[in-house]
Amino acid sequence: MGSIERTHTEQGLRFRELLSLQRYIIRSENQEEVVINPEGPLNQLHAYMYRVNGIMHNKRFFSPEIDMHRCALVPSENESASLGCACTKENTEDRVHSELYQTGEMFEYTREYFTTLLRMFPSVDGHLSIHTSSKDSFFAFINSSRVSEHKYRILASLLLLTEGMPVQMLIEKSAESIHLTLRKMEDISAHFSISMGRECESGKERKEAQNPLKEGYTNEVAEVIRFFIQNGENRILKKEGHVIEPKLYSDFKLGMFLNTPGFLIQMYIYEYIDTVYGMQSFFESVHAILCEYMACTDKRLSSKAEQLFHKYFAPCSHVSAGVEYIETAAQILFYLNKEKLLPFFLNEQIKPMQGQSCYIRSVKSLESICKAQLSEIERACSAFSMGCTDNNSEKNYINCMEATALAMFCCFAYDQENQMYATDHLEAPSADLVRFFRVHRHMFKEAALGTYNAWNRVVADLDNPSICYISQNRNRLDTGLLNLLRVVTEVAGIYHKEKENIDKIEAAIKDCSYLEENMLDPHLTQEIQTYIETLFKSLSVRGHSFKTLSIKCGFFSPVITERGRVDVFGIVCMTYKSAAVEESICFEILPLFTGIKIMLARNILPDMSTNESLASLQKFPCLQGNAFIQFMLRHTIELSLRTHEASHTVMEYIKLGSSFAGRKRNSSMNCFLLAMQTEDELYILDLVRCLLVLAFDLNLRSPHYIIRFLSNMIAPRVVDIDLMHSGLATLILLAKAYKYFPHIKIDPAIYSKMDCVEVSRVLAYITEIDSPETMNRILLLLISANEAGIPGYIDRILICLPSVWRMKILICLTRSGRSAKYIYSILEAMKKIKRGSGAHNIIRRSNNLLITIISTLSEKKEESYTNILTECFGMIVVPEVGVLCNVPTVSLMLLNERVACFLSLKQRLRFLHLPENFAKFNIILSLYTQKIESIHKATAHINNHVQVHDW
User: Fold this and answer.
1) Per residue in 715-736, pLDDT tens?
2) Residue ranges covered by each domain of the chain
3) d(CA 27, CA 40)
4) What phi and psi values does residue 550 have, to the nearest 5 degrees?
5) Contact call for residues 714 and 688 (beta carbons, < 8 A)
6) pLDDT 10s digits, 363-381
7) Dihedral sign (CA 135, 137, 143, 148)
8) Which domain of life is it from (predicted)?
9) How confident is the model at residue 759 (pLDDT cuts 50, 70, 90)?
10) Which neighbouring-strand residues pair with 785?
């Protein structure tokens, strides 16, 4: 196995912690020494792999049971070149839909489950999180001082309740108070009895505390705990197939376990307990409760407790099996991330935050503060001492510049070969920078507030007067590209070498002759771009010839700040390329904030060696059983092997999910939540496309759970997803015709952005499900929605398609040669177009479409297709004025093929002997032969004339 120390993870140092937890020995007076069962629920590798695969993230943000409708505004072309979004709701406003697809007891359970999920994972900042500032939340309760001594026993009790263990946890009400009580098994006494009223300090809150039964005051905490108490032995869950540990891999892939209380509490425990010591204390609490119940005189309870004990704990000899699972997971992630050029794959991973604490580096800074704000420093002197942090930071400040500097240094320091951060290549990095990446060398998850506090020790209060800060205490970096470059070079230890270059840029910006409508002259922009590229290459990890860095800059605008400092704002885009992958990270530096956007274009050429390595891991003996952890690891490998075949993966899950289309038992999108690869935008685009086609085919209504699922997935992606921008816009437009996604408001001008490639993919997928009626509806929709109503749009799509796709579409549209009624309906729709350039133009474009259909289907020799060809030829109209059809400007070979095709139809087309049909045939043939002759003359190649008989 590869070294776990060198394994790229998205959870920091979690693998080392998992090993430590697996080896932790639990001792008791009455039981032998045990460790956690590596195949049981206490193995935190379960939850770790949930997080790696984004399963809980998907459950929280994409579940159709959750109403996350945010008003997304897609601007018109004159407002923006790309899609934009304005959200009218915060995550705290997310609610459970009033209309769910279950009925009876399952309806009530589903409503309670998702209400509890939202309370336990409020995710107020837009990414998965249990944290909230609400004082009435379960998070606030479990963190309160009076609960701290008992919190692990509370969580252990909730976990065991989900296993059907009747732990004596009660919510007791009296006239004066509400208490959470955990009673001993065979004793009237209690382990604890805790008031569930809010902790208060003074004033109004103390007064409220005198009435803890006030409606809503303790309701949320009580309801969360009551959910687990009441659903420990929920028979309807087992009846419907919702079990926490499915016995078969096929059942695992349905994802029904995602709707169980056990999944919910396991994920909460993993998110809440973030230290080895805390998790060990939790293990001890579970162990103590089970030992207590095993010792009771009630044989039924004793037997149940003993059964769970062996499920949760195992003899010390099982450590090796647990280590093997962890090392296998480490190997999987190593190969998964082998091709990554950037250490990030989601914008949320480097999202700026509020509440960053200050860091004072030197006495000089203290003196500066004292001179400027003596009274303030007297009030906070205990916080501002040398080398300390000030936790009373300005709450409204968002650390955009600090986050930008961190993202840049992560790119510079990322050693792709070893999948960790390194600073050895830097000439003279600051001690704080070296220390930061020594501690955070595997930092690939979301940057938490603690991470930013540690990073602030690197960039705050630097001993460089040229670096500008907003605060008197030299914290909170001022915005601006030049200020950022000074910070980067100072921290990297090369400012003394680069100062002259940065000063020259500043001097050039001051020269007004360089300015052009408040934008920098292109030549100066190019000079700055060249300098930044040279600088950033010198700061990046070297030694990887397969990985190159390029810089693009734009929209540079000079400014003189309020402090009289000259700087420049604009966009800097760093692009890393290899033979297989291209990934970019862009920094938009503006006067008020700095935005960061990651754009990935993965797998230009798939790395077959990586696939082979992952496939070999699938065959490991430790993954061949039916334990849940084995299912999870095998599933992770399967997802990674299919990354290069996103559409094939979607097809498989569409077939799996199509049986859930109606209001049937087990109606769920969990199979998709389990398989979604949220970092792969092309995969997501495929999933949206295929599910929309399924919705079109089934003629689903807007409240249907498939539409809700798509709505939750699309709304946040309307913002800044350049990779899938045009395709997603096209899908939204198609969905609008079915009255889907009413919360996404589209300007009519955006209709001109209908993407031909995306439309062709939609049509191609319809052939896979073989739905002629859906194909016809989509084509009619395109005719009515296309810019100026030009029906030739369809003809252009068919011509641009590969011949195999074109044939499949027409076979589907004609119901395998049985009927031309859908072709008739398309032509009738064309005639009704009121826009455009006149009737003769519509006739010509209709004829273009018919000729394309005839030339394609002529390859089908069956008698049924002869009838279709004859009908299509009969629909061609010879106009009184103008040209019968447009001959496409395509290759000479294609034109020759089309002429040969028409000549071959001479004997197949019925009624060709009629004068009007005979003349029509000659006109078409003449137009094509004239086009061929003109090409020959233009290119001066007179050879290989097409021999055409004079009709």
Assistant:
1) 777 654 443 456 777 888 888 8
2) 4-65+100-135+150-165+235-336, 347-357+393-471+480-601
3) 18
4) -135, 155
5) yes
6) 555 555 555 454 444 443 3
7) positive
8) Eukaryota
9) confident
10) none
* Closest CA relative to residue 597, chosen from 574, 567, 569: 574
State the Cα–Cα distance between residues 429 and 144, nearest whole angstrom.
41
Q: Cβ(691)–Cβ(713) under 8 Å?
A: no
Task: Return the pLDDT at 739.
Answer: 86
What does the alpha-carbon distance between residue 842 and residue 845 come to, in Å, rounded to a whole number?
5
**Rounded Cα gap, residues 669 and 688, in angstroms:** 13
pLDDT in tens, 14-31: 788 899 999 999 987 766
CA distance 231 to 227: 6
Average pLDDT, the chain: 78
| Tokens (6 digits) for 420 | 């960790």
Q: What are the DSSP E strand ranges found in 44-103?
A: 66-67, 72-74, 95-96
- Residue whose entry in the numeric block shows the structure tokens 């966009």: 571
* Closest alpha carbon to 860 in 868, 849, 852, 851: 868
Q: Which of 210-219, 528-537, 625-634, 798-807 has the lowest mean pLDDT?
A: 210-219
Tokens of 812: 């589907």
* 796: CB partners within 8 A, 6+ apart: 756
SS3 183: strand
Kindly give, in sequence order, each residue whose CB lies less than 8 Å from that of residue 307, ignoring residues fewer than 6 positions away.
none
User: Rounded CA gap, 528 and 587, in Å?
Assistant: 15
For residue 233, pLDDT over 90 is answered with no
Q: For residue 164, what are the CA distances in angstroms to 42, 159, 656, 675, 926?
A: 16, 9, 31, 29, 82
User: What residues have CB less than 8 Å from 338, skipping those under 6 apart?
Assistant: 419, 607, 610
Record the pTM. 0.76
Structure tokens given for 446:
């979301």
Q: Give CA 103 to chain center in angstroms.
A: 31
Average pLDDT over residues 852-869: 88
Please classify residue 938 by burial: count the beta carbons closer than 10 Å to its beta carbon, then call 0-12 exposed, 13-18 middle and 19+ buried. Answer: exposed
The identity of residue 901, as a single letter, is C
Residue 645 has pLDDT above 80, yes or no: no
Taking alpha carbons only, the member of 641, 643, 630 closest to residue 680 is 643
Query: Is the separation of the CB atoms in 375 and 472 below 8 Å?
Result: no
Share of the chain above pLDDT 90, in %: 24
What pLDDT shows up at residue 664?
43
Please give the DSSP secondary-structure letter assigned to residue 357. P
Sheet holding 178-183, edge to edge: 169-173, 178-183, 190-195
Q: CA 384, CA 387: separation in Å to the nearest integer?
A: 8
